[in-house]
């Protein structure tokens, strides 16, 4: 006899068993505990029961199968119907998340909770700040386990938009994460979003890679400096190079403007047929190839792309050869 069948609290509920059809060829072999819990969950969902015992039942099912989408939705509905404490639910959810880090349903449930809570605190700045701090601390715990967890970063972007966290505290938090791991591309992406999607000055109708004339020049200069300084720490880290390209586009600045700086990573002679004696970063070499192509110095660009394919990034040789083909008509 199972837990629910032997529990007087559930005497009034007739469980609904799983039915896979007559002669099912691939019936799933559920454990007895899970089968019973799900049978009672089907029953309470069918009767639209929103109660404390139903809430406890959802917690039991989630402990057995955290990826069960339906149980999460029913749990959210039950919490909202009961007007239960969202703060308590967030605390409970944090413990679940720490042991199920790649579970999407957990993060969707968390967003539903914040969406439900926010209208009640929208005019209370201190409450918003308190929520932002607690959520940030929780995300830091998650990042300690996996600093590149896609679900956490997606949720963080959602939270920034929801609570309007386009502020110095959020930027400082991201800088701290980059100090721990300058190669964290997720942190770089979030910084770009944070800086260039700020509703205080950005044109939110533009695509991420489009020039935005509303972005203050001081911010463009600051972000260019930040990206360039990061390349010195890890020249072979692609993230700051990509970030720099994005900032230049946002500021409508030509990549040519950074030629002198980029040559610090590549030691070359001045004539176009020169032998490259030192390359500290294949990304710098690609950066220069694009600069030279834009300047019309196609011989130098072709040499850079050849070196990338043959020596500095041979795993992508076909890609570099494809880029060389784009130069071929200009080389004739």
Automatic annotation (TrEMBL):
Keyword terms, alphabetized: Magnesium, Prenyltransferase, Repeat, Transferase
Record GO cellular component, one term: CAAX-protein geranylgeranyltransferase complex
EC number, UniProt record: 2.5.1.58, 2.5.1.59
Cofactor(s) required, per the database record: Mg(2+)
Repeat recorded as keyword: yes
InterPro entries cross-referenced by the UniProt entry: Prenyl_trans_a
Name of the protein this chain belongs to: Protein farnesyltransferase/geranylgeranyltransferase type-1 subunit alpha
Organism: Blumeria graminis f. sp. triticale
